Structure formats: C-alpha cells, structure tokens
Amino acid sequence: MSEILVLTHVDYCPPAYLGDFLDARGESWREVRCDLGELDALDLDQPKAVAVMGGGMSVNDPLPWLEQEIQVLQHFIARDIPLIGHCLGGQLLARALGAPVQHMGYNEAGWQPMRRLAPSPWLDHLPDEFPIYQWHNDSFAIPEGAIHLLSSSWCANQGFSWGDKLLALQGHPEMTVQLVEEWFRDAGHLLDETQPSQEKRVQTRENLAGKVAAMNRLAEGLYSHWLRLAVS
C-alpha cells in the first residue's frame, strides 16, 4: 500500500506536529531513520508523499548515509511526488537539486519573521509576514528553476518551491511547546544570546503556547496542501 514517509536523522528532531497532523487525519505514515540505515529496506517507488525533518549535522558532513539520502531524494523528485523539507531536510532537497549549502557564520535562532517574496499555492493561507521558529547555522542556495518564496533578516533564503510538488523550508514549522523546551534543556548551551541573530530565551518563551499554536495553524496549511498533492 502507498504510504507517507517521514525521514528523520536524530532523536531530537522528530515529526512532532507533523505526526500529530497525520494521525488526526487517519493517514498511514512511517518514520524512517536515515542515520540508522533504514533507507536500505525502502521500496522507493511505493511512497505517495515524503517529508524530511531536521538534524544537528550539516549536509556537508562526510557521512555516507547523507549521500545515500540525497540519492533517495533525487529518486523521489524524479517520481514527482509531494516533498516537504524542514531545516536540514530543506537543505538536503536543495542539494538533491544541485544547489550548494553553506555555513552562514552565525546561528539564527528563535521566532524570526518571514517575508513572502512570491505568490505560491503553498503559501495562500499566509499573510505577507509571519514568524517561523529557527535554529540553524547553514543555509541553502536557491536551486536553478526554483521559486524563491521566503526570506528573513538573518537568512535570505528561507524557502523555495521547485515544480508543483516540492517545498523546502529553512525553519521548523513542526515545533511543539515540548520540543522547544527539550531543545533549550539539551542544547541551550550552544546558543549565544549576545548575538543579534539569536532571540533571547525569555523572548522565545513569552506566550510560547500561543506562538506555537499560531505556527501549528501555519503548518496545517502547508501540510494540507502537501497531502492534497499526494492524491491529485
């Protein structure tokens, strides 16, 4: 049976709200841990849609499974199935389309306002400016033939679409309150709040439940479009 795959890379970047969204709609989906060799057993012609989550590694790290995942994504792109990438996942999609991924020289973190740069059915439900949670220090270039969709003050390339069925994002629309707090607990020491590109923790936590709920609605629109493409 055709199914939805969610490709993950580490314990601390789970499907989170995406999993909740799929469960609430009764969708059949499966998490695949790329870093644990689970790509090997996949029938790449079976999935009807694929999401790619984040991770603390860089696309440029010399990890054999990263190269394997890029080849798998190129197969999915050739099949023209719906694809959506989150942070590292967006960078992997960019690399699969031949675009470089580079270190920015700093970390963009916290609630960062996105600016819409072009109309897109992926973004029809969104205003011209809206926040998405960020935690990254690499950034993708926009692949040839892609549409540059989103930008922020600290990262010019926040999102692009390619063809009708691929969306790559630099941010984390899948976040939940619990996941934000887990990241602070386990990796907060990696942040430097003196840097202007990194929101102070007290600011991030201010009305955190409300901000996450608003982003869940944002993500619901993205994921709903992604699912519609899977059956169109």
Q: How would you portray this structure in words?
A:
The chain is α/β, with parallel strands linked by helices. The protein has a single domain (4-231), classed as 3-Layer(aba) Sandwich (Rossmann fold), CATH 3.40.50. It is built from 6 helices and 9 strands. The chain has helices at 17-24, 64-79, 88-96, 177-187, 201-205, 208-231; strands at residues 4-8, 29-33, 49-52, 83-86, 101-116, 129-140, 147-151, 159-162, 166-169. It has a 9-stranded mixed β-sheet with strand order 2-1-3-4-9-8-7-5-6, with helices on both faces. The mean pLDDT is 96.
What features would you highlight for this structure?
232 residues, Rossmann fold, nine-stranded mixed β-sheet, globular
Distinct helical segment count: 6
Mean pLDDT: 96
Unreliably modeled segments: none
| Quaternary | single chain
Indicate how many domains the architecture comprises: 1
Radius of gyration: 16 Å
Total number of beta strands: 9
List the helices and strands and how they pair.
Blueprint: E1 4-8, H1 17-24, E2 29-33, E3 49-52, H2 64-79, E4 83-86, H3 88-96, E5 101-116, E6 129-140, E7 147-151, E8 159-162, E9 166-169, H4 177-187, H5 201-205, H6 208-231
Parallel strand pairs: 1-2, 1-3, 3-4, 4-9
Antiparallel strand pairs: 5-6, 5-7, 7-8, 8-9
Helix pairs in contact: 2-3
